[in-house]
Write a structure and sequence with these properties.
Blueprint lengths: L1 E5 L2 E3 L23 E3 L1 H16 L4 E8 L3 H10 L4 E6 L12 H12 L6 E5 L10 H9 L3 E11 L4 E7 L5 E7 L2 E5 L11 H9 L3 E4 L34 H14 L5
Parallel strand pairs: 1-4, 1-6, 4-5, 5-11, 6-10, 7-10
Antiparallel strand pairs: 2-3, 7-8, 8-9
């Protein structure tokens, strides 16, 4: 049985971020920005590794689309228990440096996965940067396989070749879906507890070769044909001001009451 996990490398949010001069992505001219695995994808990878631990004949592959730096994230995935790593080399487009749209990513992954006959494909429910929730369903549509999204519990039945998925819905509700294999699941956070990479696996990942597939389809996915493009990005505008009140407790309380009366929030 073969499982494919789609992972993405995202910006480390703790880094000091600045917008580039084109106003289209984050500036990283000096290479000081740190990157890591998308947290939702960590849950997807962990779910695949848990299945592998239950069934010894299961193999877990991880795939990621992006420039050469994503190999660091793929090596971390190997350290977490994946067997093989595939890097679909897609250099950052000049028209949107740093951004690869969901259609491009899903098309490249589907093109790779189509002849491999994976039984299960896992992906995080969304990426932390784009939050589009589109890559997983688009891959499933391209491969013409069933898909369940926002999965909070899954149960594999190898005899019947099905997977049962509990999917999170709005209002605290959930629905249960039974999918015939092959199938794709997008995994919600909280379904498991992602492990840290083991020392033995990390040592193995340093010497393990990552399969690199060079993409020469840049023109195919250029703006105006397929996918989408970024016009501009910006930091959120400050909507309200914060007023700090100094003094003793009584002085603070008196000042706060005065502010609330000025705002006609109390009489």
């Amino acid at each position: 049985m073969k499982i494919l996990v789609c992972i993405k490398q995202v910006l480390e949010s703790a880094s000091a971020l600045e917008i580039n001069t084109e106003k289209k992505w984050i500036a990283d001219d000096d290479g000081s920005i740190e990157y890591r695995m998308n947290r939702f994808d960590e849950y997807a990878l962990e779910e695949a590794v848990l299945i592998k631990e239950r069934f010894p004949d299961v193999s877990v592959d991880v795939v990621s689309v992006g420039p050469d730096r994503v190999k660091d994230t793929l090596k971390r995935a190997l350290g977490k228990g994946a067997d093989n790593a595939i890097h679909i080399n897609y250099p950052e487009p000049q028209y949107d440096p740093g951004y690869i749209d969901s259609h491009t990513v899903s098309s490249l992954i589907a093109e790779y996965a189509a002849p491999k006959q994976f039984d299960l494909i896992f992906a995080g429910v969304m990426s932390e940067d784009g939050m589009h929730c589109m890559v997983g369903p688009l891959i499933a549509a391209s491969l013409c396989i069933p898909c369940a999204v926002s999965v909070i519990k899954e149960e594999l039945n190898r005899e019947e070749k099905t997977v049962t998925a509990d999917c999170e819905m709005e209002g605290g509700m959930s629905e249960k879906a039974i999918l015939e294999l092959p199938a794709l699941l997008t995994i919600q956070s909280g379904i498991n507890h992602p492990r840290y990479p083991s020392l033995s696996n990390m040592l193995r990942s340093k010497s393990q070769k990552i399969l690199t597939i060079d993409s020469d389809d840049s023109d195919k996915f250029s703006p105006g044909k397929k996918g989408d493009t970024v016009f501009s990005i910006s930091f959120p505008e400050r909507a309200t001001d914060c007023t700090m009140i100094d003094g003793t407790a009584d002085e603070k309380a008196e000042r706060l009451l005065g502010i609330l009366r000025e705002k006609t929030l109390i009489k």
